[in-house]
Amino acid sequence: MNLSNKAKEINPSITLEITAKAKELKELGVDVVSFGAGEPDFNTPENIIEAAIKAMKDGKTKYTPTSGILDLRKAICKKLNKDNDLNYEPNQIVVSTGAKQSLANAFTAILNKGDEVIIATPYWVSYPELIKLSDGVPVILKTIKENDYKYTINELRSSITRNTKAIVINSPNNPTGSIYTKEELFEIAEFAKENNLIIISDEIYEKLIYDNEKHISIASISEDAYNRTIVINGLSKAYAMTGWRIGYSACNKEIAKLMSSVQSHVTSNINSISQYAAIEALSGPKESINIMIKEFEKRRNYMINRLKQINDLSIIEPKGAFYIMICIDKYYNKSINNEKIKSSLDFSKSILEEEKVAVIPGVAFGLDNYIRLSYATSMEIIEEGLNRLERYLKKLK
Ligand code: PMP
Ligand code: GLU
């Protein structure tokens, strides 16, 4: 069949694929330990669930405005003002089916054929594919370990062409957990201004921050940055609401209108029940959220300590989000069952087969000499998984 070349060029999401594979094996009775997707293991807080049940009972089960019900957009404006020092009006907000759809809407709204978007390695797996789906060209910028894999102005300068339309910034970063400082954001904002670029700022991990680090939205750096930034955020991570599919964007009215127009034809609105739950999440008590964040920090510290003791493993210590990157290239060309490990994909396939541990290969993020472990899973599972990892590494000869 003569199907879409564009669709054929898209790689399916490795993070979702591996997570689904681990779940499938578990259902078949295999004792799998999954460090796969970044998905909190906690249930959604009770007050949020109650708000959803109430919405259903009250008959809030109809279509809503495409960009989201007004009360939710007002609650998002309040949140952005309180947490991020950003002032938006409800008509600058578009609520979408996860931050993933917000990103898809953003790229569709701003890109013309051949427009380039700069993303830095390691990048979240979906950025390049979403850009390609909007006929854009992802330009991959290499970053270095010495700078915590954050891009610098010099690196940005080397990637700019007359086709550059936008840059993506993801702070705290998936998969490294790196956080950009105010000074770094200031320089990036200046660079965007000089080159008239749109900034797409993915802030979905803003609440998951450790060691008293601080999240700053690049949109709050200056009036110019505010006008050229599309802020992307959502409730999946901080509120343990991955399955509810709630994301949102905040940007200037012109782009917001285009994003809403795109969405009106693709998914209409996000499901009405999630919208009422989201109002409660944003406006209700926050104790359960703080408990989750403290627990993530405990797990992170445990993992860092244990991994450092294993065979001098080199890791990226995360400042935020819930992932740890482990450098595996010193195991390249070692073998297990006569299979040589030559890439992160070989490594992750082999450890799944041999020890039933699911990890994400770094190649998904453009960093092939790493694997990513998510610590959004219980301490017992983390302990068992690290025991298995240690055993596996000893078997590599
Ligand atoms: N951005 C980043 C950096 C992510 O890791 C994810 C993963 N969930 C998303 C966006 C999308 O999240 P969601 O669609 O669940 O809101
Ligand atoms: N963002 C999460 C991750 O990186 C969930 C999976 C996905 O949406 O790709 O694991």
Automatic annotation (TrEMBL):
SUPFAM superfamilies: PLP-dependent transferases
Annotated organism of origin: Clostridium sartagoforme AAU1
The EC number(s) this enzyme carries: 2.6.1.-
Enzyme class: transferase
The keyword Transferase is annotated on this UniProt entry: yes
Residue span, Aminotransferase class I/classII large domain: 31-389
Cofactor(s) demanded: pyridoxal 5'-phosphate
Annotated InterPro entries: Aminotransferase_I/II_large, AspAT/PAT-like, NHTrfase_class1_PyrdxlP-BS, PyrdxlP-dep_Trfase, PyrdxlP-dep_Trfase_major, PyrdxlP-dep_Trfase_small
Protein's recorded name: Aminotransferase
Pfam families for this protein: Aminotran_1_2
UniProt entry keywords in alphabetical sequence: Aminotransferase, Pyridoxal phosphate, Transferase
